[in-house]
Write a structure and sequence with these properties.
- Keywords: FAD, Flavoprotein, Monooxygenase, Oxidoreductase.
- InterPro entries: FAD-bd (IPR002938), FAD/NAD-bd_sf (IPR036188), RIFMO-like (IPR050641).
- By secondary structure, this protein is α+β, with helices and mostly antiparallel strands.
- It folds into three domains: 184 residues, FAD/NAD(P)-binding domain (3-Layer(bba) Sandwich); 112 residues, Alpha-Beta Plaits; 83 residues, Glutaredoxin.
- The strands form six sheets. Strands 1, 2, 7, 8, 9, 10, 19 and 20 form an eight-stranded mixed beta sheet that branches. Strands 15-16-17-11-18-21 form a six-stranded antiparallel beta sheet, sandwiched between helices. It has a six-stranded mixed beta sheet with strand order 23-22-25-24-26-27.
- A hairpin with a 2-residue loop joins strand 4 and strand 5.
- The model has no long low-confidence stretch (mean pLDDT 91).
């Protein structure tokens, strides 16, 4: 059985990649070893540019956030508050509160609607590359093995990726072995009161910030996304004081969580499990990994998501943008509308984003560590954040909007190489709406605001490029050529520049 792309791993990255491939006209198959969707309580939201990407695909309503994404008035970096409301229209931070299992459900439903095949209960045993294909040996739950073929194989199988290991791709980086992070969903408690302004009152301690309360022994956070089962977290930079810190194979208990809270806060806070029938979570992570694949490609094999990079940060945000970047390029090569050289831009573009995330998550972790020197550094950093220039820089870093792709050419007018700006447009036929609504089908788009016909004439031979004449206010350029992943490939009004961009990104040669 032959497919265009076989995707190993049916988590968010794999499912979103499958949906994006279907939008681009390719036939993917997702192989997921788990027979049922993972119901574990993991990530609890998305932050930054990825929220706008999901808006481009019309998925925010399904994720419980109807309408256009709105910038968040505040956020945190290293436990320090970011007053993002001071940035006004330059605020790049958007938030989407959704837990990972619900996000997976939304993405699975979308992939199914688009006709993507997802085989659950199938584990990839091995693969072999040939001149024109990859052959994959997979084993089902009943022990049956089958051989499948595809033009390309993508490993979306997590940080312990079997695909990465078999491809012989090193996972460069290291571990911060001096931290222990614990998380638990707990039941409601009369000793905890959530207060306005993002604060919480704890009996025996007093009023503290609900997010990132740093003490001499660690960091405490309490998220009241669901008052019936708040999420509690601790981070400690020292091992258990009596030396009996549980090993990595030892299941975490609620009693262990209570002891960690007491060490960090200095007060005993009895904890109870969530109400019967509600999701539960007890998780301990010893050490923090910061790794990136030596390369994202080996012949016809690609890596995306945690298989390509891990950090103690917004890896899910990175994973979904990896998928959007890779999908349209793979599909273009499969369809013959682009040459293999296009695939080389996947690593060069997405590695830059991964490196930035690893840098800023390590910096944020350092700002939370105990010690007088760190306290002094935090005081200085807080002063620096009072300047809107510094605030804008850190906000772009955390949101992932500060990375600018190289789009070729000697001159790149803004916003070339950046994610598409949020614009309200009125098309030539009189319809008014948001630019995001024109990007639902994941096709390349030429947004022509010049009022003329010269640019449309240049783009006419590229039939896959949708041409929309429109008017708007606040556009940074008279015309934008927007790639399927939402990045601006060209901006301006020069027909020759547009033609060069069309040839570079949407032509076989």
């Amino acid at each position: 059985m032959t497919f265009d792309v076989i995707i190993v791993g049916g988590g968010p990255a794999g499912l979103f990649l499958a949906a994006e491939l279907r939008l681009a006209g390719a036939r993917p198959l997702v192989l997921e070893r788990r027979p049922e969707p993972d119901q574990a309580d993991k990530a609890h939201g998305l932050a930054g540019q990825v929220v706008r990407l999901l808006d481009h695909r019309g998925l925010l309503d399904r994720c419980g956030s109807p309408g256009a994404p709105r910038p968040a008035p505040g956020f945190f970096f290293g436990g320090l508050p970011l007053p993002l409301h001071l940035l006004g229209a330059d605020n790049p931070m958007h938030l989407l509160p959704i837990n990972q299992r619900d996000l997976e459900r939304v993405l699975a439903e979308r992939a199914a609607e688009l006709g993507a095949e997802v085989w659950r209960g199938w584990e990839v045993r091995s693969f072999a590359q040939y001149g024109d294909r990859v052959e994959v040996v997979a084993r089902g739950l009943d022990g049956t093995e089958t051989t499948l073929a595809a033009r390309y194989l993508v490993g979306c199988d997590g940080s312990r990726s079997a695909i990465r290991k078999q491809a012989g791709i090193a996972f460069a980086g290291g571990e911060d072995e001096h931290t222990v992070d614990r998380s638990a969903l707990i039941g409601p408690s009369d000793r905890i009161r959530f207060l306005p302004g993002g604060r919480v009152a704890i009996e025996g301690l007093g009023e503290i910030p609900a997010a990132f309360h740093r003490t001499g022994r660690g960091v405490f956070t309490l998220l009241g996304h669901d008052p019936q089962r708040p999420l509690i977290n601790t981070a400690e930079w020292e091992e258990h004081p009596d030396g009996d810190h549980p090993g990595p194979g030892t299941p975490m208990t609620l009693a262990e969580m209570e002891a960690s809270v007491e060490r960090v806060l200095g007060v005993r806070l009895p904890l109870s499990p969530p109400p019967p029938g509600a999701p539960t979570m007890l998780r301990r992570m010893s050490g923090r990994s910061y790794r990136i694949a030596e390369r994202y490609r080996d012949g016809r094999v690609f890596l995306a998501g945690d298989a390509a990079h891990v950090s103690h940060g917004p890896t899910l945000n990175l994973a979904l943008q990896d998928a959007a970047n890779l999908a349209w390029k793979l599909a273009a090569v499969v369809r013959g509308s682009a040459g293999d050289g296009l695939l080389a831009t996947y690593e060069s573009e997405r590695r830059a984003s991964a490196e930035r995330v690893i840098m800023h998550t390590r910096a944020a972790s350092a700002l939370l560590a105990p010690g007088d020197d760190v306290t002094a550094l935090r005081a200085l950093f807080a002063e620096l954040l009072t300047g809107t220039g510094n605030l804008r820089l850190v906000a772009g870093l955390v949101a992932g909007s500060d990375v600018r792709y190289g789009m070729g050419g000697d001159q790149q007018a803004e916003p070339t190489g950046r994610f598409t700006p949020p614009l309200d447009v009125t098309t030539a036929d009189g319809r008014t709406g948001r630019l995001a609504e024109l990007l639902r089908d994941a096709r390349p788009l030429l947004l022509d605001l010049t009022g003329g016909t010269a640019l449309a004439a240049v783009a006419e031979p590229w039939t896959e490029v949708r041409r929309v004449a429109a008017t708007t206010t606040g556009s940074p350029a008279p015309a934008l050529l927007i790639r399927p992943d939402g990045y601006v490939a060209w901006a301006g009004d020069d027909p020759d520049g547009l033609k060069a961009a069309l040839i570079r990104w949407f032509s076989p040669s």
